[in-house]
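Researcher: Please predict.
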Amino acid sequence: MVVGLEVLLPHHIRDTLHAYQMAKCCNVKRVMAEAVKWGERGARLNSISPGIIVIPLAIDEFNGPRGDFYQNMFARCPAGRPGTADEVAHVAELLMSERGAFITVSDFLVDGGATASYFYGPLQPQA
């Protein structure tokens, strides 16, 4: 689906979460476009879109003013917890190995199902 660039104008962005979601979508499209170009040279391009991963910055967020938001998100997403850096690394390992030789122009959402819960499940914003 091609969306006009006018949706990226500031008055169309509702909040910081929406801005983040738009940036993620733009990155996926950018990888698609570049993968076609680089594919002609024999390269494969993919992207990994991690969710909340337990690293020092995330721990600060969990204990900060939005900590309740994160705890609710973890409790209500399919995985029931945040991810680890090792879990993201396993996806990267697959993509870079011969076992992933046919994988290109793909985005791997590694978020424990939080995005699906936001659009289709218990994390859906109430209108």
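Model: The radius of gyration is 17 Å.
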